[in-house]
Amino acid sequence: MVSMRIACHAWAYNDLPLEEAVGTIARLGFRCIDLGSGPHLDINRAAAYPEAEAATILHLLQRFDLTITDLYLMLPYTNAPDPAQREAQLTLFERLIPFAVALGTPGVTVSPGLVHQDGPDHSLARAVPALLRMLGAAEDTDLRISFEPHMDSVAQRPEQALLLLEAVPGLSVTLDYAHFVYQGIVSREVAPLLDHVAHVHIRQARRGVLQTPHNEGTIDITRLLQDLFNAGYRGALTVEYMTTFGWHGMMPISISTETVRTRDALRAARARLLASSATP
């Protein structure tokens, strides 16, 4: 049985208050949702009052019959050159673990850290102890901790992501294939990561353009789902269009229109996968 649930990231509606964003996602027919730091979440308040903040959000999700599939805590300065800045973000992450547990998210996605002014090698080296500490902060919970290889980060390319996975046992990947397509990286280069994927973001993109309308993208959704399934992935597939227009060529689009188009493409691909997997 194929159990890939289809979710929508609340970041798609960062220009709306959380209640309106959640309501919009529910009205588009989603039953699962990703949440993340940013305008929808006061992370300092969540760290200070984890159970109360989680209860407020859970009440909202229950009103709209939505289940959380991931919590993205961006915190991109966990590998900053400044030790005080690193410590502040790592301490905040540790204080947010009780919130994540109370929220009932199956996992937390983090940035592996940005490339800072002293260059990619130093930035990547500092990411290792930071990720080890973040993984350690969750070791007494059932949370999976995964990082997203993304543009401007120390893990923009698959080989960099693999270095982090080798250095931090137990860490997993949140795969956003658009970041690789943007760079012209092909599927055979991404394939070694698939065994480590714990969560998936999907939006259409093409080389040099990190977000396109669904019909203008080059990601083969059917092949992507088949590759993930063959690697044993059964987790959520989160549609993630974003309002950060212009960042690495992200095109201004109709968020709801493109979200629905990609949702429908995922549903169709999942149905074909279900049918083929059931065939003797």
Notable features of this structure?
TIM Barrel; eight-stranded parallel β-barrel; alpha/beta; 280 residues; 10 helices
Q: Can you characterise this structure?
A:
The chain is an alpha/beta fold and 280 residues long. The protein has a single domain (6-278), classed as Divalent-metal-dependent TIM barrel enzymes (TIM Barrel). 44% of the residues lie in helices and 14% in strands. It has helices spanning 18-27, 43-48, 50-63, 83-103, 120-137, 158-167, 178-182, 187-190, 221-230, 255-278; strands at residues 6-9, 32-36, 67-73, 107-110, 144-147, 172-176, 197-202, 237-239. The two termini are 13 Å apart.
Topology overview:
Blueprint (H helix, E strand, L loop, with lengths): L5 E4 L8 H10 L4 E5 L6 H6 L1 H14 L3 E7 L9 H21 L3 E4 L9 H18 L6 E4 L10 H10 L4 E5 L1 H5 L4 H4 L6 E6 L18 H10 L6 E3 L15 H24 L2
Parallel strand pairs: 1-2, 1-8, 2-3, 3-4, 4-5, 5-6, 6-7, 7-8
